[in-house]
């Protein structure tokens, strides 16, 4: 069978629309003998029956194993060139108390970028010394709390923050370790990177200001300068962008060493994952070797010691561990007219499969045009594959979960579907648009599912409305009024 002319060029007509290709699905995802998709050994219909849909499912085994792989890959490569590598899990990708604990147990530090994320990491019992705080506009209260609890490092993003962090450190009688976030001028995404002199963006300071910033930090006895920080982008597949950025940062590092110690260099996160079979992320061991080689070579050229390295991956740890389970509601065959090979109009069918969630639980397709894939989760089918578009239930035509994939053509209302690789930047970007309650999150492993964040109820949706909570009858009813779908 050939691909539908409505399918994007990268999407091949599948030999089997029931398969679970390994780079896209979490490591424990498999079909049961009855044909269901099980993750962590828990079949889709059991998950839906116990927790409802839509449902975020996080494969604990997958998340932990990827955390360990990244930790070990960079530790091994760093040791090879006589240094160390610290891995911060970027909590913005997905943070809950449970997940923060997994990361800490696997020996990772945690990167937070707001007071809320800091609160979650602290509630998880993460040692504050292993927390880093980011952000281009940290409030005074956020800085004060971070210093007061003793976070390991604060990443300074502007001149004002040098003074604000120093004041907070003086107030609490602490010496606060800080990095300075700089723009290396390298911006990377997937296979490409752009290297410019300056970047037009809100984060960090110009690289040619690094010396002035280091001097400002060093002028405060309450601050300890750890080094530079740079994050060049997201969903990056090769090492070239990191290597170019590191080369630029190390030139600055050599200058900074003239004014005092610069023990570390943080090269940020951004390692890519497979959202569809068209994506081919570089294996982490390869990436770690290439980045560390580039750093070591540049240090040798400059005649400086290789600094302790730090990285902040989020998506590459939690992205593939997550999948979202939906129930199919309505199905519509939409006739689409496209020009045929000789220019005459060709009438084709695109099957719109609508599910019980959408852009409120996964904003990435609407925000970035992100691609995902989909599989029927409660059964296998031998029906011919049909090109589908998975739509959400929001009042927005851009409310699409999966732009294009093939499902067995007999997909029907009541089927469960899994959208894989939704572990990063889905739950953390979730909203209550159209007053949909945010889904529950369950962790699965070894045949067991545990609720780690409960579903929002109708009561949750109404509780902050002053008129609702001012009504004694409603308040007395105690709610919750039931699952908000
Ligand atoms: C400063 C910083 N560090 C780390 C990350 C994590 O990136 P990723 O999840 O792509 O690894 C981000 C993502 O935006 C970031 O801004």
Structure description:
The protein is of the alpha/beta class and 485 residues long. It has 2 domains: 30-59 and 320-454, Lyase, Ornithine Decarboxylase, Chain A, domain 1 (Beta Barrel); 60-317, TIM Barrel, CATH 3.20.20. The chain has 14 helices and 24 strands. The chain has helices at 44-51, 60-80, 97-105, 115-123, 140-149, 159-171, 210-218, 240-257, 284-302, 315-318, 364-368, 458-463, 466-469, 472-477; strands spanning 30-31, 37-39, 42-43, 55-59, 85-90, 109-112, 131-133, 153-156, 176-183, 186-190, 192-195, 205-206, 223-229, 233-236, 264-266, 308-311, 322-339, 345-355, 375-376, 385-391, 400-408, 416-420, 440-445, 448-453. The strands form 4 sheets. Strands 4, 17, 18, 19, 20, 21, 22, 23 and 24 form a 9-stranded mixed beta sheet that branches. An 8-stranded parallel beta barrel has the order 5-6-7-8-9-13-15-16, surrounded by 7 helices. Strands 1-2-3 form a 3-stranded antiparallel beta sheet. A hairpin with a 2-residue loop joins strand 23 (440-445) and strand 24. Helix 2 runs parallel beside helix 9 (284-302), helix 5 crosses helix 6 and helix 8 (240-257) packs parallel to helix 9. The longest helix is centred in the N-terminal third of the chain and has 21 residues, at 60-80. It starts with 29 loop residues before the first strand and ends in an 8-residue tail after the last helix. Mean pLDDT is 95; it is low at 480-485. The structure holds pyridoxal-5'-phosphate (PLP). Pyridoxal-5'-phosphate is lined by residues 90, 92-93, 111, 134, 231, 234, 268-271, 312-316, 424.
């Amino acid at each position: 069978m050939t691909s539908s002319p409505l399918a994007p060029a990268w999407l091949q007509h599948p030999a089997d629309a029931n398969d679970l290709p390994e780079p896209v699905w979490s490591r424990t995802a498999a079909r049961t003998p009855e044909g269901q998709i099980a993750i962590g050994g828990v079949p889709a219909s059991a998950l839906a029956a116990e927790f409802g849909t839509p449902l975020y499912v996080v494969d604990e085994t997958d998340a932990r194993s990827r955390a360990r792989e990244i930790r070990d890959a960079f530790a091994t490569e760093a040791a090879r060139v006589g240094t160390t590598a610290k891995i911060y899990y970027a909590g913005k990708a997905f943070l809950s108390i449970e997940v923060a604990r997994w990361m800490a147990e696997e020996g990772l530090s945690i990167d937070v970028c707001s007071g809320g994320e800091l609160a979650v990491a602290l509630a998880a019992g993460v040692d504050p010394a292993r927390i880093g705080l980011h952000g281009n506009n940290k409030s005074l209260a956020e800085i004060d709390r971070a210093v007061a609890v003793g976070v390991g490092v604060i990443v300074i993003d502007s001149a004002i923050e040098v003074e604000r962090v120093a004041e907070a450190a003086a107030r609490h009688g602490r010496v606060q370790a800080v990095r300075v976030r700089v723009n290396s001028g390298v911006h990377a995404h997937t296979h490409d990177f752009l290297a410019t002199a300056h970047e037009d963006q809100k984060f960090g300071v110009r690289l040619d200001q690094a010396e002035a910033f280091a001097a400002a930090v060093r002028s405060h006895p309450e601050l300890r300068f750890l080094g530079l920080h740079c994050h060049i982008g997201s969903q990056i597949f090769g090492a070239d962008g990191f290597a170019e950025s590191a080369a630029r940062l190390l030139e600055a590092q050599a200058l900074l060493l003239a004014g005092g110690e610069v023990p570390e260099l943080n090269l940020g996160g951004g390692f890519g994952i497979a959202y569809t079979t068209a994506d081919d992320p570089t294996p982490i061991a390869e990436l770690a070797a290439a980045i560390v080689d580039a750093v070591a070579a540049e240090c040798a050229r400059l005649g400086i010691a290789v600094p302790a390295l730090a990285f902040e991956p989020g998506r590459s740890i939690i992205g593939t561990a997550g999948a979202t389970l939906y129930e199919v509601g309505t199905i519509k065959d939409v006739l689409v007219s496209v020009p045929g090979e000789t220019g005459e109009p060709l009438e084709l069918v695109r099957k719109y499969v609508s599910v019980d969630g959408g852009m409120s639980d996964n904003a990435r397709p609407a925000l970035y045009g992100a691609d995902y894939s989909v599989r029927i989760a409660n059964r296998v089918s031998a029906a011919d594959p049909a090109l589908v578009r998975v739509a959400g239930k929001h009042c927005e035509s851009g409310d699409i979960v999966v732009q294009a994939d093939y499902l067995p053509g007999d997909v029907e209302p009541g089927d469960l579907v899994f959208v894989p690789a939704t572990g990063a930047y889905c739950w953390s970007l979730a909203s209550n648009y159209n007053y949909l309650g945010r889904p529950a999150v369950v962790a699965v492993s070894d045949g067991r599912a545990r609720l780690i964040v409960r579903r929002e109820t109708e009561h949750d949706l109404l509780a902050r409305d002053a008129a609702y909570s001012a009504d004694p009858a409603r308040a007395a009813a105690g709610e919750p009024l039931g699952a908000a779908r």
